[in-house]
Amino acid sequence: MSAESISLRVIEILNANQVAYMLVGSLSTNFHSIVRSTKDADLVIQGDLGATAGLIAREYPDLKLDPQYGFKSVTGTTRLLLRAIEEDFVVELFGLSIDPHDQARFLRRIAQDWEGRQAWIATAEDAVITKLRWAEIAARHKDYQDAKNVIAAQQGYLDWLYIESWCDQHGSRLLLEKIRGELKNIY
Amino acid sequence: MDDFFWEEIERARKIPGAQKMTESLRLFDESMRRMLAGIKRQFPGISDEEARRIRHERLDIVRKLAELP
Asked: What ipTM does the predicted assembly reach?
């Protein structure tokens, strides 16, 4: 197995069982910007998170379900992990929360062909908003740099009113403006 | 911004998004293979299982470090 085959198989299982989902995290930022090594596949799942994680673990026994739920207090998001032990690869499943931006980005997700499979992915705008939100909360430079990479790569294709509106609500507007300042030759 | 950053951005714009997702996962697989080979060189005669255990421990540290500000 490989991280690629694991990720594609998970997508197949979700599609076959008509589970609504979207790829987020580093896979979505890779999609919209620069290629960087991805150590996990992050997906937001609509519906019963535990049932979906159990479904994947049953249909793909090489993935071991960690029964311990994680919780992100800022967004009220629950999380379950599926681990590929031999490959050291992790599939992180997040429940679709009632957080307004979580709801909005799920509605705006886009369908793309990925190696012959339909894959639902967070938009570039929502990748930027989410990364800046976490950069603001956790002060992680990686999140800031990911947002900057997406903005630079998506030059001319971003809905700025949408991004600015959410950054204002999340308190991350200063970070957004800082990036625009650093990319001043295009913005 | 340095030239290297913009060269990287220009290259990325020319590659379809789905292909970049695939490449990011292949990079991970390749880095895992190299990490395992490095551990086996460091500990000659070590079993595959033990080498994977050490890799897992090291990767765990990397994942924790990535969460830090």
From this structure: 0.92
